[in-house]
Design goal:
mainly alpha, Rna Polymerase Sigma Factor, Chain: A, 180 residues, single chain
């Protein structure tokens, strides 16, 4: 098993870059897929955003300074690509990003890759009512079980602010689920 520092060195070198990139994809593809999927909802859109994420990583690995963990950097790129995707869709459809997310949730039942039941669908609707940052924090903690320390690196926000966002998000989701 290759360690993160070796992998970064190989990714930055011209001799092993292709092979190292394949290793990187193997290591992080599934985790990043589910992270992106929690944001954009649709399987096909997730695949597109994931591909864009890996392209950005490939093109910008030389900018990675090692000040955070490699996976934190990857998650930050995936998060930014997901938000960019939602914003572009909203602009193209001339609707808000909230409406884009509501459309995606409405289409979840038709998505052959969505394995959730009515409760999962209701939870997704509740999450969609949250502001974007609270959605990110809730998804990262609830679905991906990330530590606040890691989220802090990814979202470049203090742990305290993230804990507060998560707590508020949980309260709002509970209220939504109680009402609906």
């Amino acid at each position: 098993m290759i360690d993160e520092l070796q992998l970064v060195e190989q990714l930055k070198s011209n001799t092993n870059k292709e092979q190292a990139f394949k290793v990187l994809i193997t290591l992080y593809k599934e985790r990043l897929y589910w992270h992106i999927r929690n944001i954009v909802k649709s399987h096909d859109d997730t695949d597109d955003v994931l591909q864009n994420t890996f392209i950005k990583v490939y093109q910008n690995i030389h900018n990675f300074k090692g000040e955070s963990k490699l996976y934190s950097w990857l998650y930050r790129i995936a998060t930014n690509e997901s938000i960019t995707f939602l914003n572009k869709n909203a602009k193209k459809l001339q609707i808000s990003t909230e409406e884009v997310q509501n459309l995606a949730i409405a289409n979840l039942t038709a998505d052959t890759y969505f394995e959730g039941d009515d409760i999962q669908l209701k939870l997704q609707k509740a999450i969609a009512t949250l502001p974007q940052k609270q959605q990110l924090v809730f998804n990262m903690k609830y679905f991906e079980d990330l530590k606040f320390k890691d989220m802090s690196e990814i979202l470049e926000t203090s742990e305290g602010a993230l804990k507060a966002s998560y707590h508020i998000a949980v309260k709002k989701i509970e209220a939504y689920l109680t009402k609906n």
